[in-house]
Structures are given as structure tokens and as C-alpha cells.
Amino acid sequence: MESSAPGAWIFRQFQDILIIMGFSLALAVSANTIRHDPLPWVAERRLLEPGDRFPYFPLASSEIPEFRDYLGLPPDKEIITVADIQADLLVVEILNVFCFPCQTQALTLNRVWKIIEHRPDLKGKIKIIGIALGNTKEMVRDFSTDYGLSFPVFSDADARSEKIIGPGIHTPFSLYIRRDGSGRLTVVAGTHSGVIEDPGLLLKTLTRLLPEEERPASDIRNGEAGSR
Amino acid sequence: MNTNTPWTEWLWRFLRVFLGAVFLYASIDKIIYPDRFAFAISNYRILPGDLVNFVAVWLPWLEVTVGVFLIFGLFEWASLTLYNMVMLIFLAAIAINLARGVNISCGCFSLDPNAEKMSWLTFMRDLGLLVPGLGAYILLVRRRPPPFLEKPSR
Predict the structure, then answer these.
(1) Which residues of chain A have pLDDT under 50?
(2) Model-wide pTM > 0.80
(3) Do residue B62 and residue A24 have CB atoms under 8 angstroms apart?
(4) Are residues A189 and A148 in the same domain?
(5) For B114, which of A40, A56, A78 is closest by C-beta distance?
(6) Same domain for A54 and A30
(7) Torsion, Cα of A191, B31, B33, A161 (10° steps)
């Protein structure tokens, strides 16, 4: 027999609501666990490491119109992600325009960019972008002009990088992103915290992260010689 | 007092299937792209950062559960109440950010990064989805009245 007291009825509805919420939570946990790209739970949030999947990080292509061709972006997309960029390996440099090591790193990357663009065996395979953590579009534009940067730098005025790349990120922080099985740039192939002042050393690191079939012949020969 | 008629019965069926379908449809993109949904939630700047991923994973499945329960007429009062509660939360979140003047995408039905930005039209659309949810209570009271509203039979 059902109780006719309003309190009892409301309590039963509340119980039903909890049952539905619990059921949906069980579904959510199971679904996230069996995904190939599960979202990290709070306790698992950490700085990205090699082998991780590069997370969703929308970037405004309108900030870098002169670099659309360089990145091979579709013409109609205002918001792009790293996966939209056409390359075999992408350097994502998290920097801040006011941090001195970041300025040094930007100059190193500029030199590397020039070497890549002058080498037919590397041109188009390795590309570079910067993400300016905590800087506005205007700051980024001034920074790129003052330092004569040849690669695109996106602003990250809301410091989203800290949440997306991981807690405790220190600029400059480099991520090297490689293609996955479907050909999209999603796999973190390597990371580096701090400045690399020698462009040759950085380039050597980058060419080694290229897929074997895309690596320059000279680099493969050097690698074989070095490994003996 | 059960004042259910065939007319109210069919209207209730239509409404619950419609509301359930709305939630199921809304959950599709969120389940496929949880990272995009997490980003959309963080854009609202209402939840603490640590809760964003949890809500991004859970909310779409809550929508699925409520949607399926509504369509199949399970836990009718509780499902409808959850539908209305979730819609109210969405409306509040949209209103807060429109009042703040933030230029973000709604993330309600599509998580396409190039989707249109949120506007008061978005708010009106969601309000238009809350009204039938609230109206459905009238049908539900007629169909399955709470026992304390039943007249004692002699």
C-alpha cells in the first residue's frame, strides 16, 4: 500500500532521481574507461608526456592569416586544432613573450625554421607553431615583429595551456607532435622543458622524431653510424 | 484523482518522446568528443577546473539515461524532474555568460569549434525546450497523480 503523505512521495521521487544519477554515472565511468582516448580524471591530471594524445586545443586561425598556407589549413575554418595542420612533425612551443628564456628559444626556433625551409628534404615535413601563454593578440603581434619570427604564434590570453597541456607547466615548453595511424597530428612524440640554444641539436632531435620513411637519408646514415 | 484521457495520454507520450529525443540528440557530440565538451564547459567559467573533466564525462551519459528513461516511460516523475533541472542549469549558465558578455559557443548540441557563438537566441531556444518540460508536469499529474492528491475512495 502506498503512503499518501507528501513527504514519503517526495522522498521516493528523490530516491528515483538518485538511482538515475547513479546509473548514468556508472555508464559514464565505464564508457570513459574503455575509450581509447579517455579524459583524465582529476587525480590523473599531469603534464603531457611522450606517448600521450595531444588534447583538444582550439586556436584562432584569424590571428595568423599569413601562415595559413604554411600550415596547410583549410580555407574555411576559423577555429583550428593542431590536428588540422599538415605536417609529419609539429613543434608546439609554449612560451610567454616576457620571459627571457622564451625569447631565446623563439630565436632558436626561428633559426631552425629557416634551416628547414631551405632544406627540400625537410620542408613541409616539420612545422613550428608557438602558443603564447597569458599573452594577448597584440602582445604576440609585437613580439613576432620585434623578433622577426617566421613561424606563427597564437595568443593564449586565458592561459588555457596550463589546463590543457598540464599543471605545473614552465615556459618555454616544447611539445613534438607526430601523426597517428589515421594521419592526424595527435601523438606527443617528445617534450622538452627549457631552452635549447643550439639549433643544430634541436634539428637533430626533430629529424629523429620523424617517421622513418620521412627521415632525410643523411640523418639515417648518421644515426646508423652513431649507433655503432 | 486520475483525470487521464486518451488525449492527455497521447500528448504525454508525444512530449516524453520529444524531450527524451532532445536529450539523446544533445548527448551525441558530447560523448564522441569529451575533450571538446570539457573545453566548452571550461569556457563557461562556472565550475572549478578540477570538476570540468568529471562533468564533461558524466553529463552526456546523464542526458542519455534521462532521454532513454523518458522515451520508455521509466521513472516518469524523476526523469522529467531531472530533465527540467538540467535544462534550468543550462539556462542559468547561458544567462550568466551572456550577461558577462563572453563570446563563446554554447556546446549544447554541437561541439564543432566553428559553430555559431552563443546569443540570446540560444537562451530562447533552450527556454523553448524547458517550457514543454515544465508543461509536461500538468499531464503527468493528470496521468499519475501523487498519492496525496488522490481523493480518498469511499
Answers:
(1) 1, 223-228
(2) no
(3) yes
(4) yes
(5) A78
(6) no
(7) -50
